[in-house]
Design brief:
The complex is a heterodimer of chains A (114) and B (114).
Chain A lengths: L2 E3 L4 E5 L4 E3 L2 E3 L4 E8 L5 E7 L5 E3 L5 E5 L4 E6 L8 E9 L7 E2 L3 E6 L1
Chain B lengths: L3 E3 L3 E4 L5 E7 L5 E8 L3 E8 L6 E2 L6 E7 L2 E6 L8 E8 L9 E2 L3 E5 L1
Parallel strand pairs in B: 2-11
Antiparallel strand pairs in B: 1-3, 3-8, 4-5, 4-9, 5-6, 7-8, 9-10, 9-11
The chains are: A mainly beta (114), B mainly beta (114).
Chain lengths: 114, 114
């Protein structure tokens, strides 16, 4: 079965510092990869996705992620965070075999400190 | 603009009550999903539906049922609410599988069972 691991449950970082949120998945087949963000008291919003092609994917709000097939990772990065980036971030994986489902990690709470 | 709406943002019910959570999408999506979100556990799939009147169990279907009589509407039913069903419930929709398996989420319903 597919599984997604987000090793860091909480990441505090100072404003304007860089941040990396880690995501690893387990799959022996081709996958589609997603990062979602959830602001307080809201639903999930898509940040970015990897479907195929370039392994470096750029998303909204200055975020980017790199797909590394050999390490089965899809880490999320931002070079300079803002207070408004404080939120919970979820990594998700969908197998590229026609399945409908997304498998989610347990989430990483990013707190940006002024 | 893509839209998934949920009937209530906050709901308080008593143990043993029958609870209905409604979700409507206006994107003509085939797939619809119900998740529950709990701290430290991420999103867990309760049920999903890939067509009208069709449903599939997710990872945690016990204590829940669903109904999809129209393409745009997917209802989650708690037959007899219990305190361990206190949670955030998120509805999502997507087109058919493959490269377009991105899911679009509603704002969530925070259910408290007393």
């Amino acid at each position: 079965a597919q599984s997604v691991t987000q090793l860091d449950s909480q990441v505090p970082v100072f404003e304007e510092a860089p941040v990396e949120l880690r995501c690893n998945y387990s799959s022996s087949v081709s996958v589609y990869l997603f990062w979602y963000v959830q602001y307080p008291n809201q639903g999930l919003q898509l940040l970015l996705k990897y479907l195929s092609g370039s392994t470096l994917v750029k998303g909204i709000n200055g975020f980017e992620a790199e797909f590394n097939k050999s390490q089965t990772s899809f880490h999320l990065r931002k070079p300079s965070v803002h207070i408004s980036d404080t939120a919970e971030y979820f990594c998700a994986v969908s197998e590229g075999t026609g399945a409908n489902n997304l498998f989610f990690g347990t989430g990483t709470r990013l707190t940006v400190i002024p | 603009d893509v839209k998934v709406t949920q009937s209530s943002r906050y709901l308080v019910k008593r143990t043993g009550e029958k609870v209905f959570l409604e979700c409507v999408q206006d994107m003509d999506h085939e797939n619809m999903f119900w998740y529950r979100q709990d701290p430290g556990l991420g999103l867990r799939l309760i049920y999903f539906s890939y067509d009208v009147k069709m449903k599939e169990k997710g990872d945690i279907p016990e204590g829940y049922s669903v109904s999809r009589e129209k393409k745009e509407r997917f209802s989650l039913i708690l037959e007899s609410a219990s305190t361990n069903q206190t949670s955030m419930y998120l509805c999502a929709s997507s087109v058919l599988a493959g490269v377009r398996s991105e899911q679009f989420f509603g704002p969530g319903t925070r259910l408290t069972v007393l």
